[in-house]
Amino acid sequence: MSTTSKMTFENRFEILKVRLWNMCQVFVEIYKGFRRQDSVLFRVLLVSVTIGLSILLELDVWVFSRLHIIKIYPLHEWAFRVYAPMVIWLPILVFGILVRNEKKQFALKLKEVFDLVGLKNSIGGYPNFLSLEPISGGTMKLRLTNGAFALPEWQKRKERLEANMRVFIDEIKQVQDKGIIEMTFSHEPMPTKVSIENIRGFRDYKFLIGRDRSKSYVASFAEDPHILVGGETGGGKSAFLRQLITTVKLNQPEAEFHLLDFKGGVEFWQFEKLPGIRVVSDLAKAARTMNEIAGEIEKRTRKLKELNLTDIKYFFETDAFGRMNVDERRNHLLGRRIIVVVDECAEIFLFGLGHPPEHTRQLRAAMSKITRLGRSVGVHAVLATQRPDKHAVDPQVKSNLTTTLCYRINDMGGSLAVLGNRRATDLPNIPGRAVLKTGAGEVELQTPYLDPKESARILEEAFQDSLKKIETPIVRDDKAEGHANAKV
Question: Are 371 and 198 in contact (CB under 8 A)?
Fold first, then answer.
């Protein structure tokens, strides 16, 4: 064989190999699209299903006739067996091809960017493109080889990278010992601070969870009855709890809060004197409080059955409830929602922390009852933890927490314990940045910030008349409750 024919064969082999690799990439992109539940891919899938149904109903024959190309319609069985799957799969293949080509174009443009920002090394090499994957809410993660540039060199060029890529970079970090740079970015800016513009505009036990690049996320205890807030110290958990309590109490003054803080009550000082709020910093008192609330669930369940109601929200829609003033709602068995907030829930779930085991057992049993049975009777739990591991929250309790808000966590084990994935480790080190998980959906957002002094000022203004009076105990006399219940 001549050298020319040998080279031709080798060239043809290389071309074939490249084409096969390109085709494999198409199917890889389709697979990744299904894994991340890509909304565009699912719309394309709907198109494929529609095409399949039209073939089944022979509507494609009508189309061929209208276009006067019926002569080329595959009438033979073998030809039809090729034609039908090919036409059905065509939209999905087009999706894979477009995504693959988009990433190729992106990789080519990156080399131009690297030239402009000075990320071309001494031997003329560039950082190599590895992958580009969507995370959530328009946020993308780009993975590159470091190109022999240390992490500080990348971070120093962050602003120039943003300008030339025309994106907003949240974070640049290095995967240890692998020589890989991970860059999290979006084409829309993510707010780094969110304030509550109309704090008096939330009704029906609603509150602001946060805002992403395009919209605000509002939760309601009627729809999101129990919440887990996880993350390491300094992420924003306490600030989130503060604005939640302030928002709900300001707009629903009858709301009843039990704030469990085993750090001496330092996180909840501005709420201590407000009517309908109890701050507990002693484990024994917390156990008694939780037992009282567990008993309240049983009383409320019986009362709802008497009224032929399945959920307390239906009682809130009655004329009787509408005619009640704030004091009457506070004293009525079904007049308000009860919300238990625990600042560090590991203290009530873990044995061996220096607490009497009987108190821990009582707290775990009561919290389990609240999360299992509290939704329909208006008893809710908000659990915060800075020890995000599988032992920090009782598994039975965690399975009943409908909403999870997770701030940055440095280790993957903590992220897996809270979210079930490593998403919390990808968050930039920005106070207030968190991942909201409801059901199977996740979104990165910035949670609202409310200054402690501003929170205290707002609540003092709203409850100045009540603060002048002697606060009545939250625990009500059963006879008084029975008298109040007679109004319904």
Answer: no
Cα radius of gyration rounded to whole Å, the chain: 30
439 phi-psi bin (left φ>0, alpha ψ -120 to 50, beta other):
left
pTM: 0.68
Burial class (CB in 10 A: 0-12, 13-18, 19+), 150: exposed
Q: Are strands 338-342 and 379-385 parallel, antiparallel or unpaired?
A: parallel
Q: Exposure pattern of 344-357 as b/e (b: 16+ CB <10 Å)?
A: bbbbbbbeeeebee
pLDDT level of residue 256 (50, 70, 90 thresholds): very high
Type and span of the H or E element at 229: strand 226-230
Q: Does 35 score more than 60 pLDDT?
A: yes
Q: What is the 3-state secondary structure (H, E, C) of 82-147?
A: HHHHHHHHHHHHHHHHHHHHHHHHHHHHHHHHHHHHCCCCCCCCCCCEEEEEEEECCEEEEEEECC
Domain that holds residue 275: 199-485
Q: Measured between alpha carbons, how far is 328 from 254 in angstroms, rounded to an integer?
A: 9
The answer, yes or no, to whether residue 475 has pLDDT greater than 50, is no
Q: Do the domain assignments include residue 51? A: yes
* Interval 55-63 mean pLDDT: 89
Residues 148 and 266 in one domain: no
What integer best gives the mean pLDDT of the chain? 85
φ/ψ of 167, rounded to 5, equals -135, 175
CA atoms of 77 and 81, how far apart (whole Å) = 6
How far is Cα 48 from Cα 27, in angstroms, rounded to an integer?
A: 16
Sign of CA dihedral 236, 266, 402, 195: negative
CATH code assigned at 228: 3.40.50.300
Q: Do the domain assignments include residue 3? A: no
Are 216 and 354 within one domain? yes
3-class SS of residue 412: helix
Residues 299 and 352 occupy one common structural domain: yes
Could you give the residue ranges of the DSSP H alpha helices within 141-222?
A: 151-156, 158-165
Same domain, 402 and 253: yes
Task: Give the DSSP H/E element, type plus range, for residue 441.
Answer: strand 441-446
Q: Is 235 helix (H, G, I), strand (E, B) or coil?
A: coil
- How far from 269 is each of 264, 272, 274, 299, 353, CA to CA, in Å? 9, 6, 10, 31, 25
Query: CA 347, 245, 451, 194 torsion: positive or negative?
Result: positive
Clarify whether residues 204 and 167 are in a common domain. no
Determine, yes or no, domain membership for 9. Answer: no
Residue 8 domain-assigned (yes or no): no
